[in-house]
């Protein structure tokens, strides 16, 4: 990665020629070296059905390139024009309550309708042909934020595809009935055609039906993405991405399978900076070995007609940018360049105002550019090493929790909180998908994964046998992949593998249940697995409540390593302490080398070179902090020498230091 | 009642033969002597339309009987199979927003559709014929929890039945218009066909329309129950019940009219143990003189995919069981035997787990069985005497309050709170329906009954004239049976009968209005009737607020007794004290013999024998307590002698003592 | 204005002859001299289609007149009879979720359907003909509370009218696309027929579409009102009004354009007495120079089946009545005379109960009548002078804020709070519409007006140039009349006019941003305009937050006056102080003569006569207070002399004093 991109979303189709000229001048001033264009411009490219002309964008790409500004071009499929929607309600997205979406916003069309696919293919092919080899065209983005406003579509077309998908997956309706256990409540189906979409019912739908419909929907949107990518590749060699998020109703692992690099959009405010970083540690590993992009973030605040976030405090944008580049982002891009003058996102922050002036946050953009230039050579010579600690992230688990939220549980919130603890402990970490190779890791966490697949289990087993420690839970393993309950043992194959004995599973009453481990007692919560007490395996004992005397935390040796079953969720401040001690304990046991002594709110991002290590130290919370430096180093920006000891970091300050590697 | 049942809901149709064998072994171990089967198994019995075969259940009943396990068999009508639902949206339930329910849960079918009635009759007749005389078949349950997920259906079929029902009730449309007062807002109808169901309107519907539609719906579901019972009785002598609840949209009094015994489902947690007991004191009197059943309760906690209750603390299940048996339950049954492996209630507690192990709560089940065996002979020789204090409970009043909730009032919550106070005072009490005979009572409470029927009034009058004290209110009597306002006097016939003078009715502002009675002053609340002050009748005076100087509590002599009008609701801690004093005052006046000195959280259930009295003393709240024993007695479990004085009761402890009756 | 009316809504069509006789006797007793009749009585007048007979009301008007009770008669169009609704779903109102309203409440019909207009015209013409010249008929009310339950209708008929309206407004679809900026999100339309109503979409609709649909709906209901008024005027000279409110989805300025006098309904409770007064200061100016009416207010509390307000404390009704008459109301009328016996408003307070007795509040009604008689001659000889301070109120601004609520902002709440501050400062004030002449004012406030029209701007400019001070903001001027963002300057024409320089606009973070002016520092909030600091123009400086050092409050000289730009919203207690000081500062600068020293909770209403000034001093909050009298005066009720100095006012007390004017 030799170049760091500093970019912005750009909608020249909404403005006149003079404004565009003004924009380019300001882009140069602000150090914008890449724009993203095209994702909502279908009606500009094809104002009436069949009248495709993408000349305007061809011209724009060339013009921008002539000013040194490169382009990521997007397919415009999130917003089909009026000629596609008007008079065709059957082509529209239908929500859970059966309401058919109308024209006037975005994502109103069902992406599974064959005519949609056909029209999308035509416009994308034309774009790929005409723009695919232009100078300055460095990448493609398919569509925009798939499923950010909608989740599963309930239209008639989807119903029919759902039946096909089920037929493909289950072969016979008897097999489906059997796998799902539909004899319950006399739900059993006589034919695939009878299996409903999860629409209105007097009480909850069957878990398997609900979860499978979510997986079906995730597969279908990925299939659309695949189709689009195939078309583009016929005419262009530029790498392809999608701007995704863990907040959308997609399976990111599956979605990026056939794309070339990962990118995401994030609008976390400073209070949620761990959520901001979470994205980096995840998307870096979604297309492992390939640089990812922060495709959208605000210069100051996100807003629409109906809500707004608080603006960034002065200094935070820079902290975000350095953190992004240091954690492996090649691109750091704003949404958006020039404030929308119409539509429903008029109040959203931008680089320029609708009337062409630098807006709030513009000064910060200039500072980001200063930083980018300073760190570009440092980034170019180093790389983000694989962490020793990994946490499995699964969008399929998210689907399971949407079907079975127990008590309003949200997968994203649970995962972010779990991640945050490890972040604050100063441990370098990777968020990895279910299929990511476990090679090279020492410590693996698998929290909040209701269904552990056979494949995952086998790879985790090999990881453990080779010496790794695998910490499973809370809320992991208690469901089959069909979203039913195991009928052999509480945790099925996993339990048999480790030789555990789960006595029962039930929701802990956090006002009564107490667990004790690592000399800490804490309330226990969530749907829990309780293990038989055994002095050889029990690490955490339940000391209060109806499962008193049993174990909520047990270790099982397997080959050279260990499986640690965290059956319940310690909560509150004491729970946090307990979990922190647990992580410390096993980090020590596997001899993690990456835990650093840094105050909460400040992060250290190590990057490697053959001969040296670089640390990016960044204060994210605006409170300042310090980090313990164990050997002398050089400040790469000031070139000053830094002594071992406590290094103070000011509010939103960043320091880049270099440690020489001793010869081995 | 010679036998006490200890049972569980059982779904053998969902499991294989080996599992069933295992189940029976465990049932014997756990002391389960009755199962309930069949209520969701329609697709097992009739997998395709017309292919009825109930052989599996015939075999199950016989097999279980051979192990000493008897059966209550259910008609499977809550879950019509896919051949009934698929392709027939006109047969489905339609909710208030006009959404047609789909297959995939339960109660999706409109129970008023003629084809539903026809299909239900066929399956039920076959079940009755084939199973009706089997050994071990001791009872029938019709359907399951009528209207637990749905309330009034808005389908076209119901619309037509609604018109027939109105025609039957009102004769002419002019009569309906007149009774309802539809001239208001030009609502007047020219024909029955024009009277809408209470669907979407810009503002609230007319009160009469709303309430009558609820009563119509309640009548129709009872009519379906009647039809089913008639069919069963053609082929079986086993008594028939339904597992109901005050939480469902049914009129329990009407529903049980043509059934043989009462039963109910309850999942109250320990915090709501008064609500648990409420059911017993009510359903005992719904089919007066016949033992009732607790048909469903959890061993530990209720749960679905989307929510869960906290598990019972250790000891509470036993307290529940003893209380149930002592209060007159013949059966105490769990939902469910073996954890669901699929569907939407997988996390619900059970006796065995889905993988065949005893789950949390299993030990408590064993203890219940121990207790059952110990108390069975004591129960067999005694009976629950009629209480001296009665509280009228009306599901029709619930319908009125749903139409007119004033400020989010909930009938069930109001009634439970009212009941709870009397419970905590240690007074034996009956909850009785509107038509229950008042003979034998001394003190009658009629709270939260907006419309007092002429029949009820006449019987209450006779009760009072014979010496009873009738306490009416709060919120009682201010509406006609058509849910309109009286136009002769505020409380209509009641007011005239007692010679009261209601000055006005209005909602008291609890921040301003204060009432004083029995030397207590308390804030007044709720829609209130204010009586003219008269030193002869006024007992409670309004001392603050806009009705200052008038009366909120007045007594009127009638024959040998009194009608006490409680026009307003004293609230807060002071209100509770005032109401407690009121109850004490009138209890004393009628010389109630059953008020016991027992600490809150512990209950005393007296049972009678010709020669002795037995007290079941049970600590329900897990805090322990004590009860004052006025004469020496014998502990029937330990056979020890107990001296008069304060008897300590441990946490969840139960003590059964016997007092000898002195010869009269 | 020689006569003050004391009235009540009366529904004789719901009662029998005897009851009507009783009513009239009580009306005389209570001093009711006017009734309002007819607004829901369509089915009485035309029980079947075409069978119009209004004889009953003719008789009623004459009978009442013979007792000295005059009548305001209403057209009955809010409640079309069943013959209009039954079987015609296409005539009904359709809500935002596409639900078609049914019969059974009111406002169920779409008022834009041609058959509705036709039927409404027929009944209204008949009423006008038959009743228009009757003795005692002193006024007309069209319909009742337009759009109080519904807002925009989404029916097919409205869709077609919407297209016509757009065609009329924009001429060509290209012009619409251009004005709205529909190129965004490929929304662009090829024909007017394609422009949707703002129904369901995955995310927010385009701002212009949403706002224009609201304006279209407001125009259509006013058009209906116009039609009705035209019909009435053919046969009657009695003045015409509508009982409106700022809470309804109407544009009051436009609605009253073709009506003869203003009236409104208000049910504010004592806590919201400023909202009660707000109506008076607004509706007095909506038909400037013509007396307005309080057409509906409760004697004690508003209620329906589902909710109720707290009853008025004793004394408040009188305070309301005096305040109304003093502030210019000619009529003060209750809703309603006799409690509803049926329908959905049974619990609502009234003068008589449904059973014909005086209800709670009746005594207060008698006191109101006493007061009315006492003050009638004083009112008759004086008038409410135009205030020197005006605040612009705009229902179109309300529509903009509904489309763009930022963070749940409510126009009414914002305006009331702004008004309340000025009220509490003892300053006489007018709330005026956008088109009201600015002549005679010294100080003009324009808060919360997103789009400032060119016409308004030109008139405000003239006002300022002539010496006025115009205080603009917060939240004013940042949107075009099409609800888009200006593209020339942040505030468009306004900014150019005053020569300001808005640096940026963004939502202030009230936890960080602080503004300082008039020696007060306060948190800043809301979407804000930040002005370049300039020692000549900056009055309020931003001292903390990301816009630190710039200005949130700047003055710009224009002719003999000043434009004061309040770019942000100071909040909290300090914000209130800052705004109070701002108002004081500019009041002083323009030498307002009407600021009085009166304690909060007590109001002073000055009225003028050529030779003297009368003050109505009224304690509204029931806490009592005082007012500083600067010269000696006469108490017009007691005839006592009052010395200059502090005059104590008791709880809910009113004092009317007269100051002689010294000869000039």
Structural class of chain A: alpha/beta
Task: Determine the CATH topology of the largest domain in chain A.
Answer: TIM Barrel
CATH superfamily of the largest domain in chain A: Glycosidases
What's the alpha carbon Rg of chain A, rounded to whole Å? Answer: 26 Å
Q: Estimate the mean pLDDT confidence of chain A.
A: 97
Q: Please, what is the oligomeric state?
A: homotrimer
Give the strand order of the largest sheet of chain A, numbering strands 1, 2, ... along the chain: 13-12-14-15-22-21-20-17-18-23
Number of domains of chain A: 3
The CATH architecture name of the largest domain in chain A reads Alpha-Beta Barrel
Q: Can you identify the CATH class of the largest domain in chain A?
A: Alpha Beta
Catalytic activity (chains A, B, C): Hydrolysis of terminal non-reducing beta-D-galactose residues in beta-D-galactosides
Enzyme class (chains A, B, C): hydrolase
Domain Beta-galactosidase trimerisation (chains A, B, C): 387-592
InterPro entries (chains A, B, C): Beta_galactosidase_C, Beta_galactosidase_Trimer, Class_I_gatase-like, GH, Glyco_hydro_42, Glyco_hydro_42_N
What would you say this structure looks like, in words?
The structure is a homotrimer of 664-residue chains. With 664 residues, the first copy, chain A, is α/β, with parallel strands linked by helices. Chain A folds into three domains: 5-381, Glycosidases (TIM Barrel, Alpha-Beta Barrel), CATH 3.20.20.80; 389-589, Class I glutamine amidotransferase (GATase) domain (Rossmann fold, 3-Layer(aba) Sandwich); 602-660, Immunoglobulin-like (Sandwich). Helix content of chain A is 32%, strand content 21%. In chain A, the strands form six sheets. In chain A, strands 13-12-14-15-22-21-20-17-18-23 form a ten-stranded mixed β-sheet, sandwiched between helices. In chain A, strand 6, helix 9 (252-255) and strand 7 (263-265) form a beta-alpha-beta unit. The radius of gyration of chain A is 26 Å and the shape is globular. The mean pLDDT of chain A is 97. At the A-C interface, helix 2, strand 9 and strand 10 of A face helix 8 and strand 16 of C.
């Amino acid at each position: 990665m030799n170049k760091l991109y500093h970019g912005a979303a750009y909608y020249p189709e909404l403005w006149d020629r003079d404004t565009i000229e003004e924009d380019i001048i300001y882009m140069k001033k602000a150090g914008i070296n890449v724009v993203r264009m095209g994702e909502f411009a279908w009606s500009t490219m094809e104002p009436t059905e069949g009248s495709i002309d993408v000349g305007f964008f061809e011209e724009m790409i060339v013009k921008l390139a002539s000013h040194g500004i490169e382009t990521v071009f997007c397919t415009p499929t999130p917003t089909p024009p009026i000629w596609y929607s008007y008079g065709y309600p059957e082509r529209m997205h239908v929500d859970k309550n059966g309401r058919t979406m109308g024209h006037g916003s975005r994502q109103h069309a069902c992406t599974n309708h064959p005519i949609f696919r056909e029209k999308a293919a035509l416009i994308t092919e034309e774009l790929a042909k005409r723009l695919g080899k232009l100078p300055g065209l460095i990448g493609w983005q398919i569509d925009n934020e798939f499923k950010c406003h909608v989740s599963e579509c309930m239209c008639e077309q989807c119903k029919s595809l759902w039946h096909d998908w089920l037929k493909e997956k289950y072969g016979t309706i008897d097999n489906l009935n059997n796998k799902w256990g539909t004899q319950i409540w006399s739900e059993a189906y006589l034919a695939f055609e009878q299996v409903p979409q999860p629409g209105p019912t007097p009480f909850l739908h069957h878990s398997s039906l609900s979860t499978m419909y979510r997986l079906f929907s995730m597969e279908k949107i990925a299939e659309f993405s695949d189709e689009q990518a195939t078309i583009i590749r016929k005419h262009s060699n530029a790498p392809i991405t999608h701007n995704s998020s863990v907040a959308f109703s997609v399976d990111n692992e599956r979605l990026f399978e056939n794309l070339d690099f990962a990118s995401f959009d994030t609008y976390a405010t400073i209070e949620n900076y761990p959520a901001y970083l979470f994205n980096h540690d995840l998307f870096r590993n979604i297309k492992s070995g390939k640089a990812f992009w922060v495709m959208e973030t605000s210069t100051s605040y996100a807003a629409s007609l109906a809500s707004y976030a608080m603006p960034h405090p002065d200094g935070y944008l820079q902290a975000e940018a350095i953190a992004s580049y240091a954690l492996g982002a090649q691109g750091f891009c704003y949404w958006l360049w020039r404030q929308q003058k119409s539509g429903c996102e008029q109040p959203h922050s931008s680089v320029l105002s609708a009337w062409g002036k630098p807006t709030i946050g513009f000064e910060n953009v200039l500072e980001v550019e200063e930083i980018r230039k300073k760190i570009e050579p440092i980034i170019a010579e180093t790389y983000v090493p694989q962490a020793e600690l990994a946490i499995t992230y699964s969008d399929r688990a998210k689907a399971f929790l949407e079907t079975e939220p127990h008590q309003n549980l949200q997968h994203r919130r649970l995962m972010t909180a779990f991640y945050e603890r490890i972040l604050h402990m100063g441990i370098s970490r990777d968020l990895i998908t279910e299929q990511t190779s476990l090679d090279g890791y020492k410590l693996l966490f698998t929290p909040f994964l209701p269904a552990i697949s056979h494949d995952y289990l086998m790879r985790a087993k090999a990881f453990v046998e080779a010496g790794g420690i695998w910490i499973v839970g809370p809320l992991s393993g208690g469901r089959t992949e069909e979203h039913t309950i195991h009928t052999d043992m509480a945790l099925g194959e996993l339990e048999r593998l480790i030789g555990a004995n789960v006595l029962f599973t039930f929701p802990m009453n956090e006002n009564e249940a107490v667990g004790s481990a690592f000399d800490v007692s804490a309330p226990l919560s969530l749907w829990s697995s309780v293990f038989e007490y055994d002095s050889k395996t029990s690490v955490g004992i339940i000391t209060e409540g109806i499962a008193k005397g049993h174990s909520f935390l047990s270790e099982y040796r397997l080959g050279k390593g260990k499986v640690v079953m965290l059956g319940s969720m310690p909560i509150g401040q004491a729970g946090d302490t307990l979990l922190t001690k647990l992580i410390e304990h096993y980090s020590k046991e596997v001899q993690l080398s990456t835990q650093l002594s840094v105050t909460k709110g400040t992060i250290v991002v190590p990057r490697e070179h053959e001969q040296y290590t670089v640390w990016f130290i960044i204060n994210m919370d605006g409170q300042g902090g310090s980090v313990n430096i164990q050997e002398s180093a050089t400040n790469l920006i000031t070139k000053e020498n830094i002594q071992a000891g406590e290094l103070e970091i000011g509010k939103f300050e960043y320091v880049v230091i270099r440690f020489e590697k001793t010869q081995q």
